[in-house]
Amino acid sequence: MDTRPSLLTELDALPTRWDVHGTLAAPVEAVAALLLAVAEGRVGDDNLLILARAAAAQQGAMTVVAEPGVDTYRAELAGPVEPVEIQVDRAHARVAVQSWYAGVHHATACPAGTRVTHRVLRVLPEHPGFTAGIAEIGLHARMTRDLRRVLEVIADRLGCPQPVLPTRAESPAYAILSTGPA
Predict the structure, then answer these.
(1) 163 beta partners
(2) What angle, 0 to 180 degrees and rounded to 10, lies between the N-to-C axes of helices 28-35 and 139-158?
(3) Which residue from 122, 19, 40, 130 is spatially nearest to 80, judged by alpha carbons?
(4) What's the rounded Cα separation, in Å, for the pair 69 and 38?
(5) For residues 182 and 170, what is the distance between their CA atoms, to the nearest angstrom?
(6) If you average pLDDT over residues 67-94, what whole number do you get?
(7) How far apart are CA 147 and CA 13, in angstroms?
(8) Residue 139's pLDDT band (boundaries 50, 70, 90)?
């Protein structure tokens, strides 16, 4: 019997190392439905959207497989890279992934509609999925780019205005790396 805590329980105990957020002028229920859509099958804009722009998914080489437990999955990739662990918490509108990084996307209601936050809590540079490309563009820049892409797909699907993401100058605190333990 697996006595290890769930991915979300494990991540909830860690400090946030980096985070970015964006806002959509749409109801949180509608945004969450698209953000949390995870089922067995090929990864794409309709399934595990937060990883749909990953290189493996773009090449059709990433597939979601259900794991034991409610809303627990893994994404299998072609090649030597370890599977991505995924857990969805529909009650709190959040989805967690663990690969070369561990992160959580979370949708919450806000006066403008829905705020989606992407937090990274752990990075594993020794993981085979970690590449030098991360260091080249910087993790915060990559997170911002990836969140913008996710929110653009959701905005297009819901027919709402394009997302609003703060610039780095507007939110310098989001780029600060914690000096605490990883």
Answers:
(1) none
(2) 120
(3) 130
(4) 14
(5) 26
(6) 86
(7) 23
(8) confident
Look at residue 78 and give its three-state secondary structure. Answer: coil
Count other Cβ atoms within 10 Å, centred on residue 107: 25
What is the sign, positive or negative, of the torsion defined by CA atoms of 125, 128, 134, 139? negative
Summarised one tens digit per residue, pLDDT across range 14-63 is 999 889 999 999 999 999 999 999 999 988 888 888 888 776 666 667 88
pLDDT greater than 80 at residue 10 = yes
Tell me, what amino acid is at 19? D
Under DSSP, the state recorded for 164 is: B
Q: Which of 74, 119, 70, 77 is nearest to 94 (CA)?
A: 119
Kindly report the pTM of this predicted structure. 0.83
Local structure of residue 81 (DSSP, 8 states):
P
User: Which positions ≥6 away from 47 have C-beta within 8 Å?
Assistant: 37, 38, 39, 41, 64
Unique residue bearing structure tokens 């403008």: 112
* Number of CB atoms found within 10 A of residue 129's CB: 18
